[in-house]
């Protein structure tokens, strides 16, 4: 159990840090507008953004199995771990095929929503409130991204806010797994 906690914390930490690699745009010349251009436009610029996204995808993929061992043997907890790995697989696809980002980014939001809903179903009350708040933020940023793209305004700001929300949620999920591991049995009732 201790090895699973350490492995999940390590992989989630690496995943969140690498997934936040888009912040390097403020230190590197990219030619991408953080206000107008979606964050996915960075993937066609300096290779560091694609490499960090790929590292993030691999780390999310590898975080799933140890998280699977830490959660209770309920389907909702298992779905949480599976969604982390599924998120990693889609992130890897996005790093490999940045031209498909317009299709893969909404898929990432769907996978994340499924994962957060599964957390709402099994996390204890205090943490559950964080998961519900996270779900609302995921849906709000997804809607903001859709509207920004539709009206061609502030798409860069909205996509960056979306990535920030995703990173914070995964950071919270990793913290929960490390700080407060769940019991291995299903609740009796």
Task: Walk me through this protein's architecture.
This protein is an all-alpha fold and 189 residues long. 73% of the residues lie in helices and 0% in strands. The chain is built from six helices and no strands. The chain has helices at 2-19, 47-70, 75-96, 101-122, 125-151, 155-179. α1 (2-19) packs antiparallel against α2 (47-70) and α2 runs antiparallel to α3 (75-96). The longest helix is centred in the C-terminal third of the chain and has 27 residues, at 125-151. It is globular. Mean pLDDT is 92; it is low at 185-189.
Keywords:
single chain, 189 residues, 6 helices, 73% helix, disordered C terminus
What's a concise summary of this model?
73% of the residues lie in helices and 0% in strands. The protein is mostly helical and 189 residues long.
Quantity of strands, as a count: 0
Element string (H = helix, E = strand): HHHHHH
The backbone outline, from C-alpha atoms, is: globular
| Average pLDDT level | 92
Main beta sheet? none
Oligomer kind: single chain
- The helix/strand class is mainly alpha
Detail the poorly predicted runs: 185-189
Rounded Rg: 17 Å
Bin the helical content.
over 70%
Distance between the termini: 26 Å
Task: Count helical runs.
Answer: 6
Estimated share of beta-strand residues = under 5%
């Amino acid at each position: 159990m201790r090895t699973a906690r350490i492995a999940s914390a390590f992989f989630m930490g690496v995943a969140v840090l690498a997934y936040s690699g888009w912040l390097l745009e403020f230190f590197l010349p990219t030619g991408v507008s953080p206000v107008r251009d979606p964050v996915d436009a960075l993937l066609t610029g300096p290779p560091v953004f694609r490499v960090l996204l790929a590292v993030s995808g691999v780390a999310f993929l590898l975080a799933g199995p140890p998280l699977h061992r830490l959660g209770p043997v309920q389907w909702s907890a298992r779905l949480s771990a599976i969604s982390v790995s599924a998120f990693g697989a889609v992130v890897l696809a996005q790093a490999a095929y940045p031209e498909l980002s317009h299709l893969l980014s909404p898929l990432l939001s769907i996978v994340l929503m499924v994962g957060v809903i599964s957390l709402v179903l099994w996390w204890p009350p205090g943490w559950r409130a964080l998961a519900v708040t996270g779900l609302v933020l995921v849906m709000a940023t997804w809607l903001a991204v859709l509207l920004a793209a539709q009206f061609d305004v502030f798409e860069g700001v909205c996509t960056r806010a979306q990535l920030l929300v995703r990173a914070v949620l995964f950071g919270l999920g990793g913290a929960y797994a490390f700080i407060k591991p769940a019991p291995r049995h299903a609740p009796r009732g």
